[in-house]
What does this fold into?
Amino acid sequence: MAKVAIIGCGWVGTNVGIGFRNMGYEVVFYDIVRKDLPNFTMDVRYAVDNSEVCFICVPTPTTRRGIDLSYVKDASTKIGKALKGKEDYYVVAIKSTITPGTTENVIIPLLEKFSNKKAGKDFGVCVNPEFMTEIEHSWTDDKAYKKDFFTE
It folds into this structure.
């Protein structure tokens, strides 16, 4: 099974990571603020070195000027630096809600710049945004969701 890193351990990242752990995957949780999670680190290089895929799950708050991408840019820069020393092909998945064009115009250029690697050749990038609604229990308890999201 693939080893997974969660970059950003807020509500989305924590639940995505727990969902993967419940399915038997090894998960490394990374955040800039200490969290009480298993296999937690504040070192993004450790998270990348000990995984084959990472999920960027950082906040993208809305401001008067639009979406604030500062957390996504910071995560992309740190992951890019960590990828510099990674020999194996790696996948970066974006769960954070982003606008069209952000992957091609912001995230990939930062990953390439700081890793000195090429998207598609040395690492892959995909987008699987989280669309949140108010719910009474965690979606990780929903067996139908687990089946669809984690096995198909």
Remarks:
- The longest helix spans residues 70-83.
- The two ends are 14 Å apart (CA to CA).
- Residues 90 and 106 are 18 Å apart (CA to CA).
